[in-house]
Design a protein that fits this description.
With about 130 residues, this protein is mainly β. Helix content is about 0%, strand content about 50%. The chain is built from no helices and eleven strands. The radius of gyration is 13 Å and the shape is globular. The N and C termini lie far apart (about 40 Å).
C-alpha cells in the first residue's frame, strides 16, 4: 500500500501561483510513477501532469503546458506541482496518484493509477 497526502491547495488570484505537494509513505517512493489529476464536479478525472520514477520523463495536459511544472524529490518521497499563471478555469480539486513502474514512460489514464490521495481544493479568483 502507498499512502498519499496532498497539501498546498488554497485560494489564488488569476495570474498567481500555487505549489502543491504530495507526500508518499508505505513503499519505496522511487518505485512509482506519479501523476496529478483534477476533477470538476460531474466530470471525469483528467490528467494534469505525470512524472516517471526517475523524474526523467514528464507529461503535461495541453491546457497546462508552459504554466505548470511537475517535479519529484525521491529522497523526500514527495512530488510537487508548481502552478503559475493560474486561470479561473484551473479551479477544482487536485489529486495526487501513483502506480508501480520502472519504465521510462508515464501514463495519462486515471485507470492506470493504483493509489490516490484525498484531494486538495484549488480556487482561482478572477
Amino acid at each position: 500500500q502507498v499512502q498519499l497526502v496532498e497539501s498546498g491547495g488554497g485560494l489564488a488570484q488569476a495570474g498567481g501561483s500555487l505549489r502543491l505537494s504530495c507526500a508518499a509513505s508505505g513503499r519505496t517512493f522511487d518505485n512509482y510513477a506519479m501523476g496529478w489529476f483534477r476533477q470538476a464536479p460531474g466530470k471525469e478525472r483528467d490528467i494534469v501532469a505525470a512524472i516517471s520514477w526517475s523524474g526523467g520523463i514528464t507529461y503535461y495536459a495541453d491546457s497546462v503546458k508552459g504554466r505548470f511544472t511537475i517535479s519529484r524529490d525521491n529522497a523526500k518521497s514527495t512530488v510537487y506541482l508548481q502552478m503559475n499563471s493560474l486561470k479561473p478555469e484551473d479551479t477544482t480539486v487536485y489529486y495526487c496518484a501513483a502506480y508501480y513502474s520502472y519504465r521510462h514512460s508515464v501514463k495519462a489514464a486515471a485507470g492506470a493509477y493504483d493509489y490516490w490521495g484525498q484531494g486538495t481544493q484549488v480556487t482561482v479568483s478572477s
